[in-house]
Amino acid sequence: MIISRKEVVQLSADVRRIVDGHAPDLRDNLEGQLSVLKNDIHILARRLTNQAENLQEDKACLASTLADISHQLKTPLTAMMVMVDLLEDAPPAKQAEFITNIKQGLNQTEWLVSSLLKMAKLESGTVTFNPTNISSRNLTDLAVSPLKILLDIKNQQVDITGNITLHCDTNWTAEALTNIIKNAAEHSLQGSVIKISVGENPICKFISVTDTGEGVPLSKVKSLFQRFANTQGGTGIGLPLAKAIMEGQQGDIEVSCGGKGSGATFTLKFFPQK
Predict the structure, then answer these.
(1) What is this structure's pTM?
(2) Per-residue pLDDT tens over the stretch 82-102
(3) Fold of 132-270
(4) Which of 12, 38, 101, 151 is the most buried (most CB within 10 A)?
(5) Across 26-179, where does the E strand assignment appear?
(6) Domain residue extents for the chain
(7) How far lies 252's CA from each of 137, 189, 245, 247, 255, in Å?
(8) Which candidate, 224, 230, 233, places its Cα nearest to that of 255?
(9) Of 17 and 170, the one with more pLDDT
(10) Cα 195 to Cα 256: distance, rounded to the nearest angstrom
């Protein structure tokens, strides 16, 4: 096959256009090695373009995430700095109040940073889940343990019904359940009872957590698992983290909105492993 100088010059010019960020369509339906080369270059150019577009989207997402993280950290840190400045000259009663608020701010900040690091590990694909058998009662006890102070402050109790054996990664699943129960505590009334129901059906095993709040509007269900989309009463990262953990184990979280005097229910679903 003879390739003319004109064709080579044109192909070279098209390649330069691709390098400069343009996307000429080099495909043709002719026979011969030159047509094959053109089609291969076109495929390569499209892949490079898609990678560049994905990179820009990732950069924009990273910038947005960093801005959200900065805002979430800045709020409690600024409040604590103000209280520290006022602490020395405040009367004893006010000092005690400031110290309590500072402790709460530190706990909130620690929880946020810890959750963000765990979310980063999940999103980077560096987490290896190690499923083992564990009773749902033991898993729930592990999940409730970090929340004892919060539950005591709000004079809340946890009522657990049922007990089954689950096959999951104990630590990560306890982390997911902790965030679900924490969300329930934050949206439940003072002195109320958070109900946890455990069971199984032909499709899956499950753990359901029901709060005593006002329910979740149907229009907000999708945004519940978006980072920082729901920060009222919390950090805005707990539910997305729980969702990522469950999906990483081929599970899921289902939301029943509640309302009209009934609280919302979040159900962790464990499907049979294939």
Answers:
(1) 0.68
(2) 888 888 888 888 888 888 888
(3) Heat Shock Protein 90 (3.30.565)
(4) 38
(5) 132-135, 157-161, 165-168
(6) 5-53, 132-270
(7) 19, 27, 9, 5, 10
(8) 224
(9) 170
(10) 14
